[in-house]
Amino acid sequence: QVQLMESGGGSVQPGGSLTLSCAASGLSSSSYCMGWFRQAPGEDPEGLATIDPDGSATYEDSVKGRFTIFIDDAKNTLFLQMNSLKFEDTAMYFCAADHRVRAEADQAAEFAYRGQGTEVTVSS
């Protein structure tokens, strides 16, 4: 059974940084795409980034250059390093996974498995 559990959310000032973690179990990163998406109140889910089994990453334009997705295979943990945070980055952030070999960033919200989410608030 695939389980995903996010952590690392919190409150940060504009321009600050946070690193989100996602502990994964019941899957192997060698055969699953993993990713992050977010959902702000009243908004549709927004795919942010994905990483393929071969390690290739894709990013949605609004986070490209600011966010980095990476994975620690030994610990089966997915990360999202977020820098230069903006007010509009405030949202609930979700880790997701799907048994596929390739995915674009905007597909992360469609993945079959997702965690419970971790909240990120950017405020001054």
Verbal overview:
The chain is an all-beta fold and 124 residues long. Helices cover 0% and strands 48% of the residues. The protein is built from no helices and eleven strands. The chain has strands at 3-7, 10-12, 18-25, 33-39, 46-51, 57-59, 67-72, 77-82, 91-98, 113-114, 118-122. Strands 2, 4, 5, 6, 9, 10 and 11 form a seven-stranded mixed sheet that branches. Strands 1-3-8-7 form a four-stranded antiparallel sheet, with no helix packed on it. A hairpin with a 6-residue loop joins β4 (33-39) and β5.
How would you summarize the topology of this molecule?
Blueprint: E1 3-7, E2 10-12, E3 18-25, E4 33-39, E5 46-51, E6 57-59, E7 67-72, E8 77-82, E9 91-98, E10 113-114, E11 118-122
Parallel strand pairs: 2-11
Antiparallel strand pairs: 1-3, 3-8, 4-5, 4-9, 5-6, 7-8, 9-10, 9-11
**What is the percent of helical residues?**
under 10%
Topology order in helix (H) and strand (E) letters: EEEEEEEEEEE
Q: Biggest sheet, open or closed, and with what strands and sense?
A: 7 strands, mixed
Q: Estimate the mean pLDDT confidence.
A: 95
- How much beta, percentage-wise? over 45%
**Global structural class:** mainly beta
List keywords for this structure.
globular, 7-stranded mixed sheet, 124 residues, 4-stranded antiparallel sheet, 0% helix, mainly beta
